[in-house]
Input
Amino acid sequence: MNFQTVIGLEIHVELNTKTKIFCGCKNEASREPNENICPTCMGYPGSLPRLNQKVVDYALKAAMGLNCEIQRSTHMDRKHYFYPDLPKGYQITQAAKPLGINGQLYLEKAKKTVRIQRIHMEEDTAKMMHRKESTEIDYNRSGVPLIEIVTAPDISNEKELLEFLEELKNLLSFFEISDLKMEEGSLRCDLNINVVDQDRDIKTPVMEVKNLNSFKGAVKACLYEQRRLLETLETGCELTKETRGWDQKKEETKTLRKKEDSLEYQYFIEPEILPLQLSEGKVRNTASRIPELPQKKRSRFKEQYDLPDYDVRILTKNPYVADFFEQTVLVCYAPKRISNWIMTQLLSEMPRGLEGFKELPLKPKDFGKLMALMEGGKIPKKVGEKILKEIIITGENPKRVLENRNLGPITDEQEIREIVKELINKHRKALQDYQKKPGKTINFFMGKGMERTGGRLDPCKLREAIKQELLLINQQKKEE
Ligand code: ZN
Ligand code: MN
Output
């Protein structure tokens, strides 16, 4: 069978404004349920919503980053449905005139453009927690600002799906408008998927898959649903349009709602919020403050620092790591070495991975000084690693650590000679091979010397000392 999979996405992004979208309640993770609430976000009759202008700013940035046309004259709508997590009985959203339309995001690996149909602003609902015998509702999330991004059905497989999600997250991270944590629900994605049999020209109905809370989950759900739809195409079984949920534990999708109970939302213009008029000046001003975005940054990094694609991808994953890299390079011009250290030594010490660059105590200026110490041959790599382990937590100046901790290099030839003698005495057995394989023996003692001193020995001087000492022993043997 010659088939094609067709995937479109709906993505909800929680914005990290200080306050909620229609009231002054704090928009932040709270330990206590129902702490950040007021009559407006509880949906009490008579309370009046006011649109938070920061939400408009943030949504505008995202829409521009995704190359959308901006609808300067727009409004909010009511979307009616009843659910316990929605106290008003309707959600305030944008239906008829979304803020952004006709955008696009290019996928470099798939070499394909995914069209963005729309971006709009709306409020989040409360959070329901299902216990054994009851359901509890936390209204802290009620009224948290969201943007919803809807793509055209331009994605054809799980690889493109993953690339799109990564690219979108990467892009949005440069606007700093959201935490973008899928596990914590600040980035949520629904999949619309169907399969087309191109030979017989038939297609399955579209399935909507919800509850995806990781990129991995989204890929697995996509593959699962693709297989399920293909099977039904082959067996000719009748399907109807469904909303399905991804069960992360069982790794399968299951029916949540069938098309028959699809909702009629009865949209109308929200009468309590004035229509939105964005001045040309505001739009232009926002456009002028759009930062350099990942795709452009990647090609610049590649060219300017002569780095491989792999490095460039990691160094541009978010604005914090990109800035950290560039500021370090300003202090010590060794781009590839710095890139290597960021990707290995630095990342391995950071529990939150690349996210951690946002609040790293170590400043690029000091990391650069450490790099310069190594570049200039003042300290070996091993010592650099030791210093890094300290300053990554304390944010101290690496030069001071070097002076205070006795970590400096051992360059005194007499001292090195003593160390070598001691090592040879300790490992007499290693001398047996010396005649046949002198290089191997020398390397063996090189290793031991570095091990013993934590890499503080000057390698050239060490090699020289070992050679001389071995020569001496050999001569003594011959004389005997
Ligand atoms: Zn409130
Ligand atoms: Mn929505």
